[in-house]
Structures are given as C-alpha cells and as structure tokens.
Amino acid sequence: MWAYIVKRLLLAIPVILGVAFMVFAMVRLVPGDPARIIAGEAATQEIIEGIRKDMGLDRPLLKQFATFMGNALRGDFGRSVRSKAPVAGEVAARLPNTVRLATAGLFVAIVVGVSAGIISAIRPYSWMDTVVMLIALAGLSMPVFWSGLMLILIFAVWLGWLPAVGTGGMAHLVLPAVTLGMSTAAIIARMSRSSMLEVLRSDYIRTARAKGLAEAAVVNRHAFRNALIPVITVVGLQMGTLLSGAVLTETVFAWPGIGRLLVEGILSRDYPIVQASVLVVAMAFVLVNLMVDVLYAVVDPRIHYD
C-alpha cells in the first residue's frame, strides 16, 4: 500500500505541473494588463513598461513559469497585484473557510444522498422511490445560485431563523452547506440507489434471505458495505468538486473562501492570486483521489494494490 501511495504521489507531480502551466499561460491570454492596473489609467507608457519589467512580464513565458514554480516550491507565490500582500498569506487565510464549507456540504450530501438512495433501493418502483428520485432530479437540475437565493429568502428573510451572509458560528454555515450539498446529494442518491439495487439482486443476498435473516440485517450487514465502492468514488470526486465549485456558493453567501478569492483575482487581473488558488485546488483534487483509492481497500479487503 505504501509503495502504491508513493507511486501515485510521484505520478501527481506532472499532473500538477501541467495544470499550473495551463493556468499560467491562460491567465496571460485574458484581456487586461496588471501593470496598467497597478500604474493607473493616467500612467505613461514608460511607467507601465517599468512595472512590467519589475513583475517579470517582459520575459519569455517559459522563463516566467520556471521562476514561478521555483518560488512556489519555497512557498512564495508572489505578491497580490490588488492588495500588495503576500499571496501565500491570503490563500492560507481563505483556505480553512473553504475546507470548512466543503466538509459541511459533503456531510450534508452524504447523509441525505446515501439515506435517500437506500430508501429508494429497498422500495424500488414504489411511490416513495418515485418521490425521492423526483426530489433528487430537482436538486440536480436547480442551479446553485438559485437554490442559495431561495434558501436566503425563506430562512433568512421570511422566517429570520438563520443569518443570510458572512461567517461566524454554526448558524452561518447552515445555509451555505445545504446549498452546496444539495446537487451533490442528488448525485450520491442516484448512485447509491443504483449500486444498492445491483447488490440486492446478487446471489449471496438471496442466500442470506433464504437462511431467514431479517431484512435489516441483510441490508446493513451484507448489502450496504458491498454497495459502497461506487458511492465512495462519487463522494471522492464530489469532494474535489466542492473545494473548487464553491465559487457560486461563496459569492452568494459572501463567504470568504478560495472560490471568492479566485473570482476577485480574475476580475482584477491579479495573476498571482489566480495561479496560487488554482494550484491549491489542483493539489486538493490529487490528494482526495488518492484518499479514495486507499478507502477502497479499507471498505473491501479483497482489493489489493501491487
């Protein structure tokens, strides 16, 4: 297992380098010059060119990228064009908020999605199954920004039960977490139902029922664990998606996380902020996928990595 983990980490290096280079190149294709933003509209061309030289923007792209990666390996992502503060400090300040929101959203998604999927699989093609799948389809189809605004309208404006925006205690986390977890819960519910139905039709499940085991024991002890493998795959992929896809949720709820920082960086042509934010998200994807592969062996001892 340890050899496999080391191998996966080594294979992740070219992936992260590829993502970093693509983002590094693409942000420079976006219209707008950060040197002009720093200098101001009234600045002369000589001043702008001097700023470009100080930022290294006058050098070839590959040399700029090599300098960026060399500094990044030392934890130096440069300084923000907008705030002049070290980028590493800004990302480090925002990252815990995004992790907190993504973890809470994933918890909501797992609890709701797995429960709904199991209920549907136990009573397939019943009215309960139909209602659960219709709700899952609605949750999957509803845009995140729309569901977030509706939750704010109902629970913050009309009922006044929860705060609408900002961070603070657990009350501030409820609406963003539910909004972020709704679409993921729908995906997990559909996958849980499909996987559980396939397992419940297996020969060993029929044998367990023929032995006289109670239905609860058949579902909990025999079917559920074997149905978890595809569900874990979906959960792992969605965790990475939640870390990067919290942009709309963080914007709607004014949540100070990486997603909102990334949007601010794009709008202000803040190259260092955008590059560092995407690089952190890419590393999160790699680590989450590795954790999912390790969990396979924990859930199913028959799985071995050579």
Explained architecture:
This protein is an all-alpha fold. The protein has a domain at 94-255 and 281-299: Orthogonal Bundle (MetI-like fold), CATH 1.10.3720.10. Helix content is 77%, strand content 0%. The chain contains 14 helices and no strands. Helix 5 (87-122) runs antiparallel to helix 6. It is globular. It starts with a helix and ends in a 7-residue tail after the last helix. The model has no long low-confidence stretch (mean pLDDT 82).
Give a quick set of tags describing it:
globular, about 300 residues, mainly alpha
Number of strands: 0
Largest sheet: none
Mean pLDDT: 82
CATH superfamily of the domain at 94-255 and 281-299: MetI-like
Instruction: Give me the strand/helix succession.
Output: HHHHHHHHHHHHHH
Q: Name the CATH class of the domain at 94-255 and 281-299.
A: Mainly Alpha
Helix fraction bin: over 70%
Specify the CATH architecture of the domain at 94-255 and 281-299: Orthogonal Bundle
Structural class: mainly alpha
Q: Beta-strand level of the residues, as a percent range?
A: under 5%
Amino-to-carboxy terminus distance: 8 Å
User: What is the CATH T-level topology of the domain at 94-255 and 281-299?
Assistant: MetI-like fold
CA gyration radius, whole angstroms: 24 Å
Shape: globular
Q: Report low-confidence residues grouped into runs of 5 or more.
A: none
Number of helices: 14
